Amino acid sequence: MRKIFLLLLPVLVTLDLYSQEKSGVLEFAQGKMTELEEFQKSLVENPSEENKKAVMEKARNSVMDMLEFDVISRMALGKYYSEKTPQSKRQMDRFRELYRRLMTESILKINLPEKKSLQKKNPLKLHRESYKKDTIFNMDAWIVHGTMVSKKIEYKVELYFYRKNNRFYLYDVRIDDSSTLLDYRNYFYQTISDPKKGMDYLIQKLTEKVNDLENGKLKKKK
Predict the structure, then answer these.
(1) Which helix (H) or strand (E) holds 128?
(2) For the domain that residue 51 is a member of, what is the CATH number?
(3) Whole-angstrom Cα distance, residue 40 to residue 59?
(4) Main-chain phi, psi angles of 46, to 5 degrees
(5) What is the pTM of this model?
(6) How many CA within 13 A on the CB side of residue 184?
(7) Tens of pLDDT along 182-201?
(8) CA-to-CA distance for 176 and 155, rounded, in angstroms?
(9) Which domain holds residue 59?
(10) Domain count, the chain
């Protein structure tokens, strides 16, 4: 029996790799990028405030379509996610809303930049997909591998998706193996565990950051 298994192993591995290649996650991610590129093109062709408002609304809906914020919020807050009391439930609802807006506006800021750079090509290029068990967040992860060039430096970019009801949802972006979601979680943990800060302070800071992002007032780091 063991010999038969060893003989079949190369075939099983090949079939597994084939199923991963045909999962559709790469096409899904490429489709979302194409949508954002079309929105960018529309902003270049018609920079009026009316068109900008309409295009940005469509872009936000497109981005939110690939984000499930209940799951992502639970991963981001980890051990601090709780709805045991009316107060904690209100806090979780508020956090979920703020994190939704933060993720959405951050993605839009990268893909639909300020007017002066609207005609620049998208620096992100998608190449292939793979599957693995994400041990950081204990998720079955379908990964889209890409590269991004910034200031003549090429970075490795990995988009992490999970699958639910035959849909793919983005939950993490890793640049040169640095997890955006884990960075957020570490910051959330540090803030919530601080006796002088806590959950209400975190919500206050997130509110300020999200408002700055949506109003285009986020200051660049020097």
Answers:
(1) strand 124-134
(2) 3.10.450.710
(3) 9
(4) -140, 90
(5) 0.81
(6) 23
(7) 999 999 999 999 999 999 99
(8) 6
(9) 2-213
(10) 1
